[in-house]
Amino acid sequence: MERSRSYELMFIVRPDIDEEELAAIVDRIGQTVTTNGGQVTQVDFWGKRHLAYPIGKLQEGHYVLMQIQQGPDKITELERSLKLQEQIIRHLIVRRD
């Protein structure tokens, strides 16, 4: 198994989600990372912001940025988990150098 690498995970959650549900979603994603042998090093809530372009009929969303340490072989599992969550309207995972 390769060593873990640093990644940034940015995701946008539906705007109709309240703060408790948002925290539960972030916890669920963090559990997915740690279950797969990774570590969440930082979570930044950027708040509700206007989207650059409409997604579906949504004009805004809750932005969350996570710094994670994860093995490269487990990133596909994390992506699959993010796609299955209906509250997440967009996500992006970028490897940090």
Describe this entry's structure for a reader.
With 97 residues, the chain is α+β, with helices and mostly antiparallel strands. It has one domain: Alpha-Beta Plaits (2-Layer Sandwich). The chain is 28% helix and 48% strand. It has helices spanning 19-35, 75-84; strands at 5-13, 39-55, 58-70, 88-95. A 4-stranded antiparallel β-sheet has the order 2-3-1-4, covered by helices on one side. Strand 2 and strand 3 form a beta hairpin. It is elongated and about 40 Å long.
Describe the structure concisely.
This protein is of the alpha+beta class. It has 2 helices and 4 strands; from the N terminus they run βαββαβ.
Listing every helix as H and every strand as E from the N terminus to the C terminus, the arrangement reads: EHEEHE
Helix content: 25-40%
Number of strands: 4
| Total domain count | 1
